[in-house]
Design a protein that fits this description.
70% helix
Length: 198
Amino acid sequence: MQTAFVILAAYLLGSVPFAMISSRLFGLADPRSYGSGNPGATNVLRSGNKKAALLTLLGDALKGWVAVYAAQRMGFGEIVIGLVALAVFFGHLYPVFLKFKGGKGVATGAGVLIGLDPLLGLAVAGTWLLVAIAFRYSSLAAILAAALAPVYFLLLHGANAQIFVVGIIAMALIGKHWQNLQRLLAGQEARIGGKKDK
C-alpha cells in the first residue's frame, strides 16, 4: 500500500501544471492558446515573459527532483524509486488536471535524472543547454539530450536496473518531439524566443 501511495503521489505531483500556474501569476494567456499550444517553459517564453518561463522551468524540474529525492529518503529500493521517477515524469506528460494533455517533459525529465544521479542530470541538462545556445532550437536540444541520456548513464554506472528508467524517459521525450523533428527536417520549426501563432 505504501508503494502504491508513493507512486500515485508522484503522478499527482507530476500533474501539477506549472506553465498554467506561472501564466496566471503573471497575468498571461493560457499557454495552450498560442505558440505550439504546449504547456511548457519554452512555449511560455513565447509570451515574451522570461520570468514566467523561468518559473515554469524551475517548477517542472523541481517536481521531478522532489519525487525521486523523497522516495530515496523514504528508503525505497531502486525498483520503487524507478517507478516513482516514471510516475512523476508521465504525470507531467499526461496530467490528470489538464485532461491528460501535458507538456513534453524536458524540464521534469531533467529533474528526475538529477534526482537519480546529479552528474547524469547535469550532463543531460548541459547537452540541452549547449545545443539550445548553438542552434536556438529547444526541440533539437531535447531530442539530442534525450538520445544521449542512456549513453551517459552507461558510462557512469554500466548496465543496471535504472538504465531502463532512463531509456523509457528518453524514448518518451523523443516520441513527444516527433512532430518537432518533422518540422526541423522541413525547416519550419520555431526557434527559442520566437513567437509563432498556433
